[in-house]
From TrEMBL:
PANTHER family cross-referenced by the UniProt entry: ABC TRANSPORTER, ATP-BINDING TRANSPORT PROTEIN-RELATED
Protein name, as recorded: Macrolide transport system ATP-binding/permease protein
Signal sequence, start to end: none
Keyword match Calcium: no
SUPFAM superfamilies, sorted: P-loop containing nucleoside triphosphate hydrolases
Parts forming coiled coils: 268-345
Residue span(s) of domain ABC transporter: 13-276, 354-554
Keywords: ATP-binding, Coiled coil, Nucleotide-binding, Repeat
Record flagged with keyword Nucleotidyltransferase: no
Length: 554
């Protein structure tokens, strides 16, 4: 089997030559990793590069087409959706997470009694039971429950609350709490800081730093990568020989893996330097290839002319002519050998990186005065009374703990939600667009190009083609929306929101699921955008560099 479970005492995670192809799309090629018990490895890459696929393969939820995986006996993946019905309670989920600890304590008690009775093999059973109890931190299970619940900001949620009554963010934090309480040896985390506020992220950072086994996490959270990662592994294309890339493959997608010590800041500098070296090497090799092809063609023609029959009058010069022809032939052979070798070994062309096309200004902003005015606007149970004026061209960052009402405020500004108290006034003919945290896919079989055209209309889609916005790769525009990753779907939704520039752009956690390079380009574009922008974000990296207004809720 591709996945092998190691003994209970082994805390090393190994990935050897894993490859995965979906239909005609190569996602992973010959990926190899080794994580020791102290490794905290951040997995990064463009949306669709295979981060989630690799985590699922390691967790045993997907099979590789080639390669193998060996994991510790207790390896768990953070689930984005809990495997419970909506009527299940929070208390039940947390109790189930601690079940292994409870079983370990019971096993120790049973084995201890067997030792006292002098039963054969009881000593071995007791040793195994104690090892399991230590691995699950069984003796402090009760205290850990309180610590984890408080650390993730779940202490205000009653154990009797059903999962169906929780917000998406609250369910995500319950899933994280269940994973940490289960105390697996190896942790696999997919975007672990989504839906966590600053206090919860700080708690998670401390917890992972002290984790007794390997941790592999995919994340777009730059501050989290800097704080936690001992190494960064990048699944974006790396400089590989051209001959390795299958003809017709999507710009070599799925080929290569880069690893660097330290967090995101160190990796970013190394990646930029490597990209420069790659581009320079490709240019130099192409120049040499062109020169060799020219040399072979020209010298071969010269050889052919020297091999033409000679008249008797030139017989005296035949010896020298033949000698010259041999030298020329040797030069042709040498050039051909070098040409063939370089054609095999040449580095592939660096695939174009997605570059955000920027934000256009609104076509016709409403007249003078605020675009939107909230006067003690509140939504019962979701947003406390808030007074706010959003002027044309304003740049406003909304921060606050989970549950403070950031998403609710954006819904009020967009006109999708009415306040239960206070008032919300929007300028006449105000055009707003909202990028929500959760993208609703109405027709999963519709291609990205068709969904873009359907949302904007034929004329606007032709005036601003999807490709010029730099948010959806050319290889993905004709793929079904349902086949795109969550991040790719959000980028498509962002493209639709900005293609016909609104007067007021509302962004809810815009850097979630966004590639690191695109996140930085989006931040720069927001700062210089002529339109009004209101965004809600937990992204500490973005907040540290924000130069506009800030509204803190809660």
């Amino acid at each position: 089997m591709p996945q092998q479970t190691l003994s209970r005492s082994t805390a090393q995670l190994r990935v050897d030559g894993v490859s995965r192809v979906f239909g005609d799309r190569r996602v992973l090629t010959d990926v190899s990793l080794v994580l020791g018990p102290d490794a905290r490895v951040g997995l990064i890459g463009e949306n669709g590069a295979g981060k989630s696929t690799l985590l699922r393969i390691i967790a045993g939820l997907d099979e590789p087409d080639a390669g193998s995986v060996a994991v510790p006996a207790r390896t768990e993946l953070l689930r984005q959706e809990l495997p419970y019905p909506s009527e299940a309670t929070v208390g039940r989920v947390l109790d189930d997470a601690l079940a292994a600890s409870a079983r370990a304590v019971a096993a120790v008690e049973d084995a201890s009694a067997a030792v006292a009775r002098g039963e054969r093999g009881a000593d071995r059973l007791l040793a195994d039971a104690l090892e399991d109890a230590e691995a699950t931190d069984a003796w402090s299970a009760g205290a850990r429950r309180g610590e984890v619940v408080a650390g993730l900001g779940l202490d205000a949620i009653d154990d009797e609350r059903t999962l169906g009554s929780l917000s998406g963010g609250q369910r995500s934090r319950v899933a994280m709490a269940a994973l940490l309480l289960a105390r697996p040896t190896a942790l696999l985390l997919d975007e672990p800081t989504n839906h966590l506020d600053d206090d919860a992220v700080a708690f998670l950072e401390r917890t992972l730093a002290a984790w007794p086994g390997p941790v592999l996490f995919a994340s777009h959270d730059r501050a989290f990568l800097d704080a936690v990662a001992t190494r960064v592994v990048d699944l974006d294309p790396a400089p590989r020989p051209f001959a390795d890339v299958i003809a017709g493959d999507d710009a070599g997608g799925g080929y290569g893996l880069r690893s660097s010590r330290g967090g995101y800041t160190a990796h970013l500098a190394e990646r930029r330097a490597e990209r420069t070296r790659w581009e320079r090497r490709f240019a130099e090799e192409q120049e040499e290839l062109n020169a060799l092809r020219q040399e072979v063609a020209v010298t071969a023609r010269q050889t052919n002319r020297k091999d033409t029959p000679r008249t008797e009058a030139r017989g005296a010069k035949k010896f020298y002519s033949d000698k010259d022809a041999k030298v020329t032939s040797r030069l042709v052979r040498n050039a051909r050998v070098r040409l063939e070798a370089l054609e095999r070994e040449q580095v592939r062309k660096p695939p174009p990186e997605l570059r955000f096309g920027g934000l256009l200004g609104p076509s016709g902003a409403p007249g003078g005065g605020p675009l939107a005015l909230l006067t003690r606007a509140a939504v019962e149970g979701r947003l406390a009374p808030t007074t706010l004026a959003v002027d044309p061209g304003a740049k406003l960052l909304v921060t606050g703990r989970n549950g403070a009402g950031k998403s609710t405020l954006l819904l009020l500004l967009d006109g999708r939600l009415a306040p239960t108290a206070g008032t919300v006034q929007r300028a006449p003919r105000l055009r707003s667009a909202l990028l929500a945290q959760d993208v609703v896919v109405e027709d999963p079989m519709q291609t990205a190009r068709d969904a873009y055209r359907a949302a904007l209309g034929e004329r606007r889609a032709e005036a601003v083609p999807l490709s010029v916005l730099g948010l959806v790769a050319g290889r993905d525009v004709d793929r079904p929306v349902g086949a795109l990753s969550v991040g790719q779907q959000r980028r498509l939704a962002l493209a639709i929101a900005i293609a016909d520039p609104p007067d007021l752009l509302l962004l809810d956690e815009p850097t979630n699921h966004l590639s690191l390079a695109l996140a930085e380009e989006l931040e720069e574009a927001l700062d210089s955008s002529p339109g009004a922008v209101v965004l809600a974000s937990h992204d500490r990296w973005l907040r540290r560099r924000w130069s506009g207004q800030v509204l803190s809720l809660g």
